[in-house]
Amino acid sequence: MGRNPALPMALVLVAVCTALALSLTTPGAVHAGANCETAGAGLSASEQEMFDLINAARAAEGLSPLVISPGLNRTAAWKSADRSAWGTTPSDPLFSHKDSLGRMPTQRANDCGFPKDAAENIAYGWGSARATFDAWMASSGHRANILMSYYVTVGIGEHDDRWTANFGIFNDGAAAVPAPAATVAPAAPVSQAKPAVPQPPKAMKLGAGATRVVYAGPGGWSEDIFGSLGSSLEFVYTWDAAHGCWLRYVPGEPSYVNSLAWIKPGIEVIVGVTSAGTWEW
Length: 281
Fold this sequence. Notes:
This protein is of the alpha+beta class. It is built from seven helices and 13 strands. Helix content is 21%, strand content 23%. It is globular.
């Protein structure tokens, strides 16, 4: 569809991790299809064009391609058809990431069957996939969502002049199939030996991107605990349930940005790295 001159052109984004206070909330229970009914969860020709444009831009930066997430695709399709995708009057929800049911992107994604956090770019009034994509790429925040190294999935929805792209760090596209159990002959009896006392690990291999792990080492300052990751470390986040907010550590940032100064044993953290490596503590 061509650009509608009667509509103002608008862009808004919510970014996971880069603007965490706006978008990362504790994922709620997943209710696939609850308040997420849509007939547009597949990819139309224009949505496929947007998908190809996003992955071409990532390839040009040496980044891995995104794959379509069924849950995020439902999320994006629902959002683009919702009144919040274009509302401009007091009787409609204003053009916003908050939809007509009061949900922000992560809660909406959870309701649509995606079990993790979701980032979001939205736009209306630009018309074609190419025009909307170019507008997103000309905006630093929207461009950052498209080129975020640790995103692995995307969902795309278009309804008339209204576009939504949702991004995630989890692939819900295919469930792992368990390998058949091998038949093993009974082992011959052996004498009982004193069991070894398991030692806590002192290192962990991390793949490129974001990994949710439980820290098994001793307590210490974040810069010391994560120092072995060097320049590949992008961020560390943990959810502070007592205060209902995310704490973060980003190397090189000042103390008013880094609210996660001390790492406690047993804490669950999300660690983002630009390349695979071994985290030692």
